[in-house]
Structure formats: C-alpha cells, structure tokens
Amino acid sequence: MNSVRKKLPYLLLIAFIAIAYAINQSKPQVDKRSSSVVPILTVEVQALTTQDYQVVIESFGKLTPKTQSELTSQVGGLVININEKFSPGRFFNAGDILVTIDPRDYKIKVDAADAELAQAKVAFDEEVALSKQAIKDRRNLGLTKAASAFALRKPQMAAAKARMAAANANLKQALLDVERTFIRAPYDGRIRVKNIDLGQVISPNTSIATIFATDVMQVSLPIKNTELGLIDLPRNKLPNVSSSSNQAGKINLSKNSLPRDNVTVINTLGGVTQQWPATLLSTAGAVDTNTVQLHVLAEIAQPFSHPKFRSLTVGQFVSAQIRGKLISQAVVIPNSAIYQGSYVYIAHNNTLQRRAISIGHQNKNSATITTGLHAGELLITTPLGQVSSGVAIKVLPAQQPAKLVKSQKDSDND
Known about the structure:
Distance between the termini: 103 Å
Strand content: 25-35%
Helix content: 10-25%
Oligomer: single chain
C-alpha cells in the first residue's frame, strides 16, 4: 500500500504528459485549398447619350397687381351714397360711380359763377358799345388826329374781357367740382381696402380706398447667380442709339424680348394644381440686397377671368418654371446617380470607377454634365455608398434613357 502511494505522483505526471501529447497531435488542420472570395456587386447601368436639353429654371414669388392705386376724393363733403361694389374684394368696371359726395354746396357755387359770368359779359358788351360810340363821335366831330387807346376805351374793353374770361374759368371749376362729387373708377379693378363709409364727412385728398386693376398680375422671381447664363434676360440693356448722321438723336428701340408664355406659374391654392401661362417682362433694376440675387418680373394676363382656371389671389405665393436656353448635345443624368454633388460611378471592364463631374444645370430630377462624362459610357444607377474604384462588379443589361422615361402618350393613357 505504501509503495502505491509513493508511485501515484509519478503516474499522474505520466498521465498529464500523455494527454498533452494527444492534444498537440490532434490540432485542426487548415484547408489550404480554400481562398478568400472577392465579393462582386451587381449593378444596373444606363448607357449615356447626348440630347437637346431645354433648360427650365425653378423659382417662386408672391403675386402682386401690376397697377394699384389709392383712390382719393378731390373734393370734400358728406358721403351720401356708396355703390354696392364698393366693398373689399368686390369687382368694378371703369367709369362706375363708387362713392357720391353731397353736391349741393358745389351746385350753389355753379350758380354763383354763372351769375358772375353773366355780369362780366354785360360789362364787356358795354365796353364794346362805348368803344364803338367813341369812334363814331370822333368821326362826327371831324377829328383827324389819332386818338389815344384810352379815348377809344380799348384798355377798358380788354379788362372787361379778362374779367369775363376769369368768370368763365370759375364756372368751369365749379362745374368740375360738381362732377368730382361723383367718384368714378379709373379702370376695371377690385377693391382691396375700403377706408370710408356712408354718412362720413371727408376732406379733399382723402384716401377712400386702395384699388388694383384686374387686367394683369405680376410676380417677381429670384434667379440664382449660377443660372443667369442659362436664360435670355429681357430689357437688361439701354436701347441702341444710331450713329448715322441722318439718324442723330433718334433711338433704335430693339425689341429685346422673349416669346410670350415662356413662364409657367403654378397655382396650388384652392384645389387641383393649375398651370398659368405668363410672360417674362423685365429684370429688376438692382440685385436684391437680402438674397443677393437678381429678380425677373413675369406678367399673367387676365388672372380673374380665365374660362377654365381658378382666379389667382393677390399676395399668394406661387412657384414658377422659366424656360431658358436650349442646350444642344447635352449629357443628362438622373440626380439619384450623383453623390455629394461632385462625382458618379462608371462601369468599365466589369470594374467600378469613381468619376468627378461638373454640373451645368440641375432640376428636381436630372442634371446636365459639362465635364467628366461622355456619350457611350455606362453610368451606374444602382444606389451605392462609399465605394473605391477598381471593385469588381456584375453589370446588368444597360438601359437606354428612352426606356427610363415614360412617353407623353403613355402618360395620357394612364
């Protein structure tokens, strides 16, 4: 028994050595035939082509009336009648009597001026008669010496004539004041603000309403500085002055205008979106100090009388599309293929290439590329993150741009 106890440590040691040796001999073997597989991206591409591209510049602005006035009374008095059209939002026609001021005081002045004119006519006729009588008396007396103007009563006759003219002018003024008690609309328009009411006593030059014409409305549209070269700016130069000797001092007024309806104003207020045709009229006289952008002015004809469209509203904000220049042989790509506004991915020999680009014009959906891309190259349209050039890719069959855009005929059939 003692001998077994003495041999036990040695037996345990031998057992541990045997186990360690067995573990060392049974290590997992690496399969040298396996190798790392390079991942392959599957991407869709678009074959690039060139096309004529119509630049459309997006902008926005607030509608304002082209003609707006403060309607004032030229005479004072008691307001005795107000037209039912004289109310905020109501329309009126040129010549409508909107407000009537009590004319009785002014009619009395007409009677007084008429009487004054009658007396002046009598005084003038009397001086004419006295002048004729003076000439006759000198002839009867046989006086041959030239008579003075006073003797022939010429100055007295001229003074009487002047008094008659003054009395006639006073009568015309009195009649004009009576006419001005009927305040008429100067044009077809609409009441914006009403300042007076029935029974109110007003003084001359009182503003009775703010009105605006309904024939034309306008909108001021800011243009980005980078887009100024993509649009023909109207009326941005002085008229040309001819240098010919026979044309000296005459101005040659070049039209320098764009075709009508080159702007589309989009109205979303009150229902279905409607597109109003408008005309680019002129540029602002200076760059806006707040936005540091140049504004162009567009006009919309008959904004309240279109047979199909809803009426526009003064003060409402609208978006606008301005047709600019036509770019020939342009490379156009979707915005979704552009990363950080500066590069795209190109498929070349089943590898991915990162390509820096320069954008000429960009709208909500697409962009024209001035440098970096050429017709015939394959643009990767599959959304990617940060990918390095040289990555192996699998390219699906290229799609032509015409297949990516639904035709107008297809849209009409939907």
